[in-house]
Amino acid sequence: SQTIHQWPATLVQPVGSPLSLECTVEGTSNPNLYWYRQAAGRGLQLLFYSVGIGQISSEVPQNLSASRPQDRQFILSSKKLLLSDSGFYLCAWDPSSGRGNEQFFGPGTRLTVL
Amino acid sequence: AQSVAQPEDQVNVAEGNPLTVKCTYSVSGNPYLFWYVQYPNRGLQFLLKYITGDNLVKGSYGFEAEFNKSQTSFHLKKPSALVSDSALYFCAVRARDNYGQNFVFGPGTRLSVLP
Prior knowledge:
The structure holds two protein chains of two kinds.
Chain A: E1 3-7, E2 10-13, E3 19-26, E4 32-38, E5 44-52, E6 55-58, E7 65-70, E8 73-78, E9 87-94, E10 104-105, E11 109-113
Parallel strand pairs in A: 2-11
Antiparallel strand pairs in A: 1-3, 3-8, 4-5, 4-9, 5-6, 7-8, 9-10, 9-11
Chain B: E1 3-5, E2 10-14, E3 19-21, E4 24-26, E5 31-38, E6 44-50, E7 56-58, E8 64-68, E9 73-78, E10 87-95, E11 104-105, E12 109-114
Parallel strand pairs in B: 2-12
Antiparallel strand pairs in B: 1-4, 3-9, 5-6, 5-10, 7-8, 8-9, 10-11, 10-12
């Protein structure tokens, strides 16, 4: 069966510090991968998605970047965090084989920027 | 452009009563529709989806949803609510034929089931 991992689970970082959040998927190959941010326990904002290694699409211009160095690894980064980067970050995947497939979400990373 | 509306920020229901969480959508062409649930500090958990066929879809934990094409709605329902159903619920849409469009999620509805 497939599983999705995110780490760390929680993170407290000072303003101006760098960020690296990691997401890995097991039990599947060539998944579509997504990074979302959720503010204040409400709606999801799609940040980045990837349909393959090295292929990243950005949905919202911002202080963040994403990379996909391996087929099942998706990394969210920042060189200098802002207060507004605080939130709950969710990684998700879905099979590349069809648009009727649901997305599967990781457990999330709670980021607090102080 | 795709969009999803969940007109109620909060739904309160007594335990044992039926519940409905509303969702309407806008998409070019035919949709794929999804419902997810989120418990505090957790990722989203898939409940059910409409792909094609029967307009009434049954999913996990006794939930069901009805696709209504004329009203562009996909309301989530459960005949008898449990306190443990209290959570944040998201509706999502994906255009069936527009490969340039990703999932679009609604703003979420917080369900509180009162004992």
